[in-house]
Specification:
The structure is a single chain. The protein is an all-alpha fold. It has a domain of 57 residues. Helix 2 runs antiparallel to helix 3. The longest helix has 22 residues. It starts with a helix and ends in an 18-residue tail after the last helix.
Length: 87
């Protein structure tokens, strides 16, 4: 969260920001999802480890959404919604 906040502040101040952060976060989200997919069939749904991984994935997804909404993602990334035309 601190890195995303730092990059957001740097962008708002018109300073160069780390464009690789998006790819690092998406890679981290993939790793978390892979771990969840691997562990879910063999664990109790109320397992502490599964809960921790689920919370981590939710947090990373919220950070990715924040990055999209504040222009910190690559230009070609969208949220799947049709573009809104401003009048």
């Amino acid at each position: 969260m601190m890195r995303v906040a730092t990059e957001h502040a740097r962008k708002r101040l018109d300073l160069p920001h780390d464009t690789a952060l998006w790819y690092q976060l998406t890679d981290f989200e993939s790793q978390i999802s892979a771990a969840l997919n691997r562990l879910e069939p063999f664990n109790d749904p109320k397992s502490d480890k599964l809960a921790q991984l689920s919370y981590a994935r939710t947090a990373v997804n919220k950070l990715l959404r924040f990055m999209i909404e504040h222009g910190l993602s690559p230009d070609a990334i969208t949220d799947g919604e049709p573009p809104v035309l401003e009048r």
